[in-house]
Predict the 3D structure of the following.
Amino acid sequence: AGRMQSSRSKPCSCPSLKLREVASMYFTMVAAFLVILVVALQGSAPRESDFPYKVPLDLQGLLELSWNVSYPEQAVHFQLLIRELQFGLLFGMSDRGKFENADLAVLWSDGHNSYFGDAWSDAKGQLHMDSQQDYQLLGARRAPEGLYLLFRRAFSTCDPKDYLIEDGTVHLIYGILEKPVHSLHAINVSALHGGLQRVQLLKPNISIPELPRDMKTMEITAPDVVIPSQETTYWCYMAELPEGFPKHHIVMYEPVITVGNEALVHHMEVFQCTADFDSFPHYNGPCDSKMKPERLNYCRHVLAAWAMGAQAFYYPEEAGLAFGGPGSSRYLRLEIHYHNPLVFKGRRDSSGIRLFYTATLRPHDAGIMELGLVYTPVMAIPPGEDSFTLTGYCTDKCTQLALPPAGIHIFASQLHTHLAGRAVVTVLSRDGREQQVVNADRHYSPHFQEIRMLKEVVAVFPGDELITTCTYNTEDRSRATVGGFGILEEMCVNYVHYYPQTQLELCKSAVDPGYLHRYFNLVNRFNDEEICMCPQVSVPQQFYSIPWNTFNRDVLKSLYGFAPISMHCNKSSAVRFPGQWEKQPLPSITERLREPSPRCPPSPGPQPAVPVPLQLGQLRRD
Amino acid sequence: AGRMQSSRSKPCSCPSLKLREVASMYFTMVAAFLVILVVALQGSAPRESDFPYKVPLDLQGLLELSWNVSYPEQAVHFQLLIRELQFGLLFGMSDRGKFENADLAVLWSDGHNSYFGDAWSDAKGQLHMDSQQDYQLLGARRAPEGLYLLFRRAFSTCDPKDYLIEDGTVHLIYGILEKPVHSLHAINVSALHGGLQRVQLLKPNISIPELPRDMKTMEITAPDVVIPSQETTYWCYMAELPEGFPKHHIVMYEPVITVGNEALVHHMEVFQCTADFDSFPHYNGPCDSKMKPERLNYCRHVLAAWAMGAQAFYYPEEAGLAFGGPGSSRYLRLEIHYHNPLVFKGRRDSSGIRLFYTATLRPHDAGIMELGLVYTPVMAIPPGEDSFTLTGYCTDKCTQLALPPAGIHIFASQLHTHLAGRAVVTVLSRDGREQQVVNADRHYSPHFQEIRMLKEVVAVFPGDELITTCTYNTEDRSRATVGGFGILEEMCVNYVHYYPQTQLELCKSAVDPGYLHRYFNLVNRFNDEEICMCPQVSVPQQFYSIPWNTFNRDVLKSLYGFAPISMHCNKSSAVRFPGQWEKQPLPSITERLREPSPRCPPSPGPQPAVPVPLQLGQLRRD
């Protein structure tokens, strides 16, 4: 591809209505394009507030991505800072962070000239120029700290080669070009030095609630920890509230990250300990250490949770998270996940979470409710599945009994599975008709579990149903994966944050064990196999001994879609609401939500498939 | 929508590279458009050979559609003759011929001006202008016989509101506008006078084989029949070959339609009778008459078949269909399906089929082989299903035994189901990997079963597998539909025409009856139901007594996808090839054919969403 000039102009005549229309549309587009370009390049630099979200892409902090989301335009504007540019860079997205079948913006140099283009990688990692250019370059700027690239991408491009930017997790990928490149086709991404970063690109567009005047702050931070020189560390630190600390409402919290460690602090949580014990020992060390006091396992009530890429978390104006006061433990546990795959040594860290709280209690206490599946082995996933789904129900009968007549308001949600989880979605259903999605993540990763503010608060009334479906991948496993607490067992949970707080803490289900027993019997008879159905054999053992084939798999699927359920409609994990909760009918859905058909970009619209030449001079200064 | 002028022109300057590109692309497009327009309008009329395929749309013959297919352009060109235009016309396509959710070209008049546009109807029949105009008007021309409209449509437009034109049956629909219309939105198609016509739009692009010099013709036609004044008549007429007529090869055949009856003659077939009887009685009357001799049921060997919209049928140069000579019956049965829903009275008809045959035998006899499912009740469809599939197999073991080492060549195919059939597809698989589609009709209708030439001849070798899948709709039924000969029972058959002829006449399968028995047992135990499994109860009775729910349905589906099969690898319907054909393993597929991703039109490309004004004068001359 030769270099092109872009400023020639010669007269022509517009021959018809349609050309005039095309032309006028095009002028609008060029105008919009120029305005953005000017905004971006006029001042010395774009203001930080133009790109409120920021995340490091690599572990050395050489690549820094900031972005903003325009819901009216249905587009994301990216600002990528490249601190040490070599011969170019790939940046893009793929379903689960693989370099193959990815959608990529590419900046490349042949040693003399630089180009920018929209490309995609095939199943073998080979790059191809996209026939429709949907990463739109808005500007490029040299600054002392590095090169800034500004570009735009519509959520949905209707190009089948493009990634569809959806709510929830997006797997961002980057790759470094270390040699001059003469054409895009010369690049195989699988061979590049690069990496992956998970973020929630489509941050909800919510206004910040008004904060109380008497707001105070409290930092729960690690006391100058030396980050262990190993890939993964969960660090535990015990903090405590002052004696006699009365009831307060947490109204917001934000991360406190030690400068320089932005790429190492993966996620952090503050847990409150149970009030069942009067005191908890001090501790400051790895969570999996043999030295860790066993009692720390009783500190599991989430007060705050942050993950990389997340910002401050605000409670709605009507509610706050209660802490302090009688019946509440003074003891807090800070847990930090350090992700250190380059095994840096001797890095010191004092990161943590800053709580903003008030003594002027808001009208409502916020609560957390667990939706999804009971932690029981009766819910199992056959081995070798690429996307097997399990569904947990919060039934109309339970919400009828436990929710106040005015309903509750869900404002945030944290999705949770173990390692096989690939997608989680909770849908609200009323009278058998699906009403709205509470929270959905089609690219969910168990390595990126953040509390997410919902785009809109969801009102749930008595008689409503909340249906949570998790999708699992067990292609790398040779035996069934059963439900349970173990890391190789599975969970399907949505922790929803809501107000006003109710007694309902758990609204989850599992298949009726009697029907599961019939299934084991059926598999036994149908396949002429000897599966021991003796009562002394546990459910996991029975699952492990099933000879998996399409029939046994399909029938298990059918069983989960048909058999009655056992409900946990509980005040706490041990105390059920009164009522009959066994052999409950499966909620039936008569009307499903329709998949939103992606909006295609009307304008500026995609650009022709030619690389855009850039005036950057030589990229690498050797 | 106001009227627009289309010939103004004013100077402008082209400001950038991209506009120049857009403009140049546009000029190419306009040029192509003008050329077509000129071709279409220059002579007094387009030549008939420009539009080789023709079909009446309505039953009075007021609307006549001709078309051609351009595979290089991936587009269909339509010429629609409207003999008595009122205030406009709708023409389009929908999945199964419904007026709702249809893709329509609309010609409408407000009483003064006329417009043409691409529209779609929603689930309620309401018309909407399409945001992407994919029916492209190429010209309109008044002639003594009526108004000709010429327009073009790409097979695939990538507009989700548009119908994807695929191989196989296309349901064309039309509607008449009997009053002036002020805007598209004022039209509700469900209320219009209109109708449906099924055609194979994408005729294969095959060259006509060379015909022998000594070719003779023979017409098998109805002897001046008075078409009964009832909607549906199957007419039977017995013809016979001369005594001592030696073996010949049929090399082609074509329809002979009495002028004026083009819309009434729905389909015709010529069958040869069995050689088991020396003579057959004469007959000329309805096929379902009590007077019809029972022996006519032994005339079932297809010699020729034609359906509305089909053209002449040619055998490949290497092969012909044998008839005449020893071991072959002299008696032929012509069957004509008259479709007369307007119950015209006293229409006389002498339609039929003209056979072209030669005494100079070609290298190979052509043969017909039955693929799909055995006619047995063990293959059943639950009630209330919108698309339940059943699959019949021709296994590697059978083709290994029965096909010659050089293989056979399939050149034509006729798909067959009873009334619940909605789609049929046969795929060729080799070593577990799907190789190619033999014939597919995703919009199959049991009312439109024609013999279709394949786009390309398919070579099948010993060890190959032929897998035929039928999709059924039983939403209007309350009990199971079992396999069988009855009109309310089902079949799944692909009659493939091939050469050289082999002994293999039937290569079909059904689920192993023992496994079906286990299924009945399982349903019984699992559902606590009393289904009589006594041996004296027939398989249909057992199916009829199943309490259908999602579990019983899903498990039946799983059974058909898992259980071993019983193979019919037969020389004739009663004589099997030697070998073990019971409890055969299901062919496994390790690599599926990928769905072809539809090509979007690169150019001329869609036009902006404005109606095109036409200079037709007032449409209706009252």
Notes: Chain A touches chain B through 43 residues (CB under 8 Å). The radius of gyration of chain A is 27 Å.
